[in-house]
Design brief:
Elements (H helix, E strand, L loop, with lengths): L1 H27 L5 H10 L1 E6 L3 H14 L4 E6 L2 H14 L6 E5 L4 H5 L8 H5 L6 E2 L4 E8 L3 E3 L23 E4 L3 H10 L1 H12 L4 E3 L2 H9 L5 E3 L3 H11 L3 E3 L4 E10 L6 H11 L2 H11 L11 H8 L4 E3 L4 H18 L1
Parallel strand pairs: 1-2, 1-3, 7-8, 7-9, 11-12
Antiparallel strand pairs: 3-11, 4-5, 5-11, 6-9, 6-10
Length: 344
């Protein structure tokens, strides 16, 4: 009888665990209010301007369409700055075609200045966590672009690079590739200070790094052995290259600067209801998991943390995220970009 009682108790505990897991899954399932969903079904699509690579984004969209098959995501791949200018041009012409833009927040100020991003109550409508909303709901955070030091494991031994100061060693002269705009240094300047960061850049440039435009070209050069060390590419992309092409890459577990990437629904968007569902879903547990699985990018802080974010937390690695003060961030970026340009 005692064995039977223990077995019964174990079964009840197991059942309770299953029910709790199911309850949590139900609680995490993204929901759109019926009236918003009905309007979105009539709109039928979302015109989405994004710098995401199309093949991986298609996988994310497929996961979205399992929940919302009636909404087509029409993706136009475009970099943030040209996209912002295109949206401003459409406003002047009095006819808006773009519904959603994703961008680092450092490029967003012209849209904020022209009231092209309106406040919205994402929490009340979709239950979006406050951690994922900026500027009174004008933007929804969907990911952070982490920008650690990366290296080629065929050319750099484990432990040879441990800190940012290690890049100043003359042994790395001519063996570093870096991104031209200097975004990691603009972010690091928020904790290092502008003067110290400019001084650091001056020392780094004496090692004659190869300067390239774009984080992906930088990483491709590193993976191809054109450099030993890279600055200005992305930790998520390092992991993606390792996972999908077995590239000889790794990133350094030291202070990691990161830019904030967000989505916003454009004022006058022709498919505003469908656009809000898409944006809110990207910030949901489902959307964050989809971004993390397909891109190795999602939020590094907040309610739903990416795989890299969890590692940073577990290893107590300092994470420096760009300031929400867009004007300050842009000013620092201008300084770093000009410093790199003048020292090339």
């Amino acid at each position: 009888m005692r064995k039977a009682s223990k077995l019964c108790t174990a079964m009840l505990v197991a059942l309770a665990s299953i029910l709790l897991s199911f309850s949590n899954a139900v609680a995490q399932t993204f929901q759109a209010p019926p009236e918003v969903l009905a309007a979105a079904k009539k709109e039928r699509q979302v015109v989405y301007y994004s710098s995401f690579e199309a093949p991986a984004l298609r996988q994310v969209i497929q996961r979205f369409n399992k929940r919302f098959p009636e909404i087509e995501i029409v993706h136009f791949r475009a970099q943030p700055s040209p996209s912002v200018q295109h949206i401003i041009s459409e406003q002047r012409a009095g006819k808006m075609s773009v519904d959603v833009l994703d961008s680092p927040i450092s490029f967003i100020q012209p849209l904020l200045d022209r009231n092209l991003l309106k406040p919205y109550d994402w929490s009340a409508t979709f239950g979006v966590d406050k951690d994922y909303q900026f500027y009174d709901g004008r933007l929804v955070n969907i990911l952070h672009l982490d920008m650690p030091i990366a290296y080629n494991t065929n050319l750099v031994k484990p432990g040879e690079i441990n800190t940012w100061d290690d890049l100043l060693n003359p042994r790395w002269r001519g063996k570093i590739v870096m991104e031209a705009r200097g975004l990691p240094f603009a972010v690091l300047a928020t904790v290092w200070g502008q003067e110290k960061t400019v001084e650091y850049l001056g020392k780094l440039m004496t090692n004659k790094p190869t300067v390239m435009l774009g984080g992906t070209p930088v990483l491709e050069a590193l993976a191809g052995g054109q450099a030993s060390i890279a600055v200005g590419s992305y930790g998520g992309k390092v992991e993606l290259f390792k996972e999908r092409s077995k590239a000889p890459l790794e990133w350094v577990r030291t202070t990691v600067p990161a830019s904030t990437y967000a989505v916003g629904v454009i004022e006058g968007a022709p498919h505003a209801n469908a656009a809000r569902i898409w944006c809110a879903w990207l910030a949901s547990v489902e959307g964050q998991d989809a971004l993390d699985q397909e891109f190795w990018y999602a939020s590094l802080v907040g309610a739903q943390v990416s795989r890299i974010g969890k590692e940073l937390q577990a290893k107590n690695i300092q994470l420096v995220i760009e300031p929400l003060d867009v004007a300050k961030g842009q000013a620092l970026l201008d300084v770093m970009s000009k410093t790199i340009g003048s020292l090339k």
